[in-house]
Amino acid sequence: MQRGWPGNAFWHSCKTTFRKIMSCTIPMFRRLWLYFPRRTHALTYRLLLQVGNKMYGRTLDWVQRVPFGLYIKHGPGKFVPRGEGPALKLVEQYTKVVAPRLIDLLTTESKTYLVMTRIPGIPLQEAIQSFSYAERSQLAADIRGCVSQFRQIPNPNDAAICSADGGPTFDYRLEDPAGPFDSEEAFNKHVIFRKSLRSAIHDHRHKIFFSHADFSPTNILVERGKLSGIVDFGCAGFYPEYWEYAKGIYGHFGLETAWPGSLSDAFSGLYKDELAAEKLLWENGNSF
């Protein structure tokens, strides 16, 4: 399955072992870092952002790779959703999904800094066309396993549908921020902007689960033909069970079938009616 993928297998194994060792030190480092003053944190992050920009260049205005195997998401609140830090904490506490580990969440008068660990790999969108059918099948199985773990995360909040910290959802599909919502029916009233677009499936009561809510080939990382991690939990929160699949499909249907096909396999072909209802809403203008 890995035939044709570049890189030395021994070196890859060494890097994997090193990453595992480093991940074990994260809790200790976080505890030690908390003893330093907030001002020291802010000054350190500004310095790291400058160094990271010179070393790695800038991909996005609000996300920067920096030294020591870290990334910093920074800027006003709209660039650093309030629920992203709590979401990362929940994922670390309740799952074994490979995702960024939260180092610090610091809010100053003008800016928020979300400091997290870097996940190895490249975005799936850069590699999926090179995947064999066997690799795509394994990718779907691995994503299915991640979703299963996400669904084991308990909702610690009073609201049913909300961000990870119980506040409004941050989701471009919902013209954020939206909610929080006490029920799926309240959620549907927000989503369905015209009665004629209500589908029969909207009368079905779905279970509410923790969801990444932004599955996209840009947020799924792969390495040597395998899933290596999931990043960008800015939209994460508690949503109806179909939301993870429907959001992952949005913008990726049409002639290109590799990603929609893999995601459908990951969800075992479920939620076709829900996807059809969502497409009807998207096509009539209620989309991000």
UniProtKB/TrEMBL annotation:
It comes from Pseudogymnoascus verrucosus. SUPFAM superfamilies: Protein kinase-like (PK-like). Pfam families: APH. Gene3D superfamilies: 3.90.1200.10. Residues 96-261 form the Aminoglycoside phosphotransferase domain. This is Aminoglycoside phosphotransferase domain-containing protein.
